[in-house]
């Protein structure tokens, strides 16, 4: 990470920041926008797309950027970015095609739409970072083939569960150990959660009840662990949307849940 920080600081000093376009303006996107605008040197959030344009405007305003421009055409988008004005658009493909954007971040959670945007970005020599676990888990390996053909990078993101787990995996390997189990542990997990039971929490934090339900009932974890499995070559004990095992004892003794011979046979 020190190498990355140094490179970003160098780009900031050179006046050549990485120009980032963001697709989606929900809860996670709002936090990401604030992070990019206020705490990351060497990057600029130059455009946000969302089907409800006002939410994209709000994401910018939450980060402290005002006088936001709306672009309805490719020409309008390019001019606004060149002028350094924060710009929003309903049409995500404008961002995918823009010559003024280096990296596109998908924060939507939509599979078909996300795939369309990613493929269009590849066709225009654009790198893509996914905060879209649903897309990554469903066809991430396929998209990776198209990214390699286009000579661009397709990546998950640091900070969200799959990226954090892979960093832990790398760290354990660097110690000379062999990782055998990669877990995603949620104390709040309950397979019987529904949008009705989650509505109060969702409204308190300005989130979608159905989306919040997926965080709590285990289905989101299944997507995230698929990404980790694809990245590491690990397999699963049972195919499908498995909710995993319940364990409420000492976390340091969690290894007793597993048969080490089975883990070796599965490869992790």
Structure write-up:
By secondary structure, this protein is an alpha/beta fold. The mean pLDDT is 93. β3, α4 (74-82) and β4 (87-89) form a beta-alpha-beta unit. It is built from twelve helices and seven strands.
| Element-by-element helix/strand order | HEHEHEHEHEHEHEHHHHH
The outline comes out as globular
- Report mean pLDDT, rounded to a whole number: 93
What is the topology, as strand order, of the major beta sheet?
Answer: 3-4-2-1-5-6-7
Low-confidence segments, given as residue ranges, are none
Largest sheet: 7 strands, parallel
How much beta, percentage-wise?
A: 5-15%
Determine the N-to-C terminus distance: 27 Å
How are the SSEs ordered, and which strands pair?
Elements: H1 2-14, E1 18-23, H2 27-38, E2 43-49, H3 53-62, E3 69-70, H4 74-82, E4 87-89, H5 92-97, E5 103-106, H6 111-123, E6 127-130, H7 133-150, E7 154-155, H8 161-174, H9 195-205, H10 209-216, H11 219-232, H12 260-266
Parallel strand pairs: 1-2, 1-5, 2-4, 3-4, 5-6, 6-7
Helix pairs in contact: 2-3, 6-7, 7-11, 8-11, 9-10
């Amino acid at each position: 990470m020190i190498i990355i920080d140094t490179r970003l600081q160098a780009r900031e000093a050179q006046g050549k920041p990485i120009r980032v376009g963001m697709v989606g303006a929900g809860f996670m996107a709002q936090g990401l926008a604030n992070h990019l605008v206020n705490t990351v040197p060497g990057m600029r959030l130059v455009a946000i797309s969302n089907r409800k344009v006002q939410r994209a405007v709000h994401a910018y305003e939450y980060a402290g950027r005002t006088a936001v421009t709306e672009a309805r055409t490719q020409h309008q988008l390019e001019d606004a970015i060149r002028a350094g004005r924060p710009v929003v658009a309903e049409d995500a493909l404008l961002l995918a095609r823009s010559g003024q954007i280096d990296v596109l971040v998908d924060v939507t959670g939509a599979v078909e739409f996300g795939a369309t945007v990613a493929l269009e970005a590849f066709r225009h020599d654009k790198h893509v970072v996914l905060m879209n676990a649903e897309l990554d888990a469903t066809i991430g390996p396929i998209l990776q083939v198209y990214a390699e053909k286009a000579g661009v990078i397709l990546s998950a993101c640091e900070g969200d569960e799959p990226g954090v787990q892979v960093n832990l995996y790398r760290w354990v390997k660097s110690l000379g150990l062999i990782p055998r189990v990669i877990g995603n542990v949620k104390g709040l997990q309950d397979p019987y959660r529904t949008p009705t039971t989650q509505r109060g929490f969702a409204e308190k934090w300005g989130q979608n009840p159905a989306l919040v339900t997926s965080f709590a009932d285990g289905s989101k974890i299944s997507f995230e662990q698929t990404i980790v499995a694809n990245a590491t070559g690990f397999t699963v004990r049972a195919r499908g949307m498995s909710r995993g095992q319940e364990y409420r004892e000492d976390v340091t003794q969690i290894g007793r849940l597993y048969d080490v011979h089975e883990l070796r046979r599965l490869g992790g």
